[in-house]
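Now for our target.
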Amino acid sequence: MRRWVLAAIAVGLALPASAVLPSPLEQRLDAALAARVLRGARVAGLVVGREDGRVLYARSPDRGLVPASNLKILTAIAALSAFGPSHRFRTELFAGAPPDADGAIDVLSIRGSDPALTSEEIWRLAADLRRLGVRRIRGGLRLDDSGFDGERWHPSWGRVSARAYHAPVGALSVNYGAFAVEVGAGEEPGDPVRVILDPPLPFLRLVNRARTGRARARSSLRVEPAASNGFEDVVVSGVVPAGREAKTYYRSVRNPARYAGAVIRYQLEANGIEVAGETITGPVPDAVTLLLSFEGKSLGEIVRLFVKFSNNAIAESLVKAMGARATGAPGTWKSGVAAMLAELASLGLDVEPLTLVDGSGLSYANRVPPRSFVEALRIADRSFRFGPELVAALPIAASDGTLEERAEGAADRVRAKTGLLTRVTALSGFAQRADGGEVVFCVMVNGYRGSDEEAMEALDRFVSELVAGP
């Protein structure tokens, strides 16, 4: 026995420091990242203790990779720091004079800045205007979206689709620049397909060319919006199999200000305010009276919406809003990203390793290493001012947001931001381990060759192993 012990000690002393056996946790995490779908991909990750920052797992933690929507973590932290979680963006309404004895005003001018304004809030805005005595608008609406520049889509995104996640960015915007199209099959083959647009605006003109096919027919449905002389046509074409349940498709508009104006006109009329005249765009004139300054949701609420559900339009609007705050209107991507980096640096984050061009992570030009995400999360976690809002905004495994149907093995014990682009996936956040200890983690993968679903499953296994065992 004595000889065996001495031999074991001798072997241990002979091993170089780099040959220390990995811990059980490291072995499990390595095994998760050894999934077939990730072979040949660029993989990087870091796990540290939430309180002490002690490194529990590291794999190329300083390697800058495309972060996809994990970038929204940095956007959220910078915006919360710059504006504060209680900040509310305002939608301002002006007229040449207060309403006359009949409740009439001339042109109603609307200046936007709220990235999360919805149809429901526009109804409330219209009701508030009616309460102020407005009953008739004689000269139409003027839409002022001069808070941001006119670049609606970032040039590095390449060709954009009509999907809601490619919605245009504008200072005056409603419903995140998107709308819903519900499509249901007819009763018999050859019947027209039933289509409902929400919101039901004259601005969105339905062109329904779709038909119901046989029950076993292959679906060839297409839903494509297209700008058309101040309106937006919604062209629905193709075949829907008979008996197919109604399905909702979300699409983006091309002109966010015009869409906002259509929603505003619709809700004004719903509140009994007659709107005559046309809708025009342009800055609010100097000699006007402020009728109403409508405050939307708090930034804390907005951040929860855009992080939980990975809303690209909100993310990019916040970037441009940070730019306008820092250097004056109009906010641009260039001024916004510079302001975002400056805000992160002021919080103590080393921004030297970061290459950022947008705020949503849609661009493949972004590069962020796992260490930067972990450090940013730890900085936010320590912030009394906005830390609780950031942590509460992260999706909860197998419970809500973009993790609602993922990571069942880590259910309710992981709060993390997801990220997904073609051949890119990532996951960063907080986890509670089986022994009660809490960690901060980031894992990123670029260039896998299998399906997105398989790659996400590998990361789900990573966090499941992270919360289990010693």
User: Anything to note?
Assistant: Residues 1-15 have pLDDT under 50 and may be disordered.
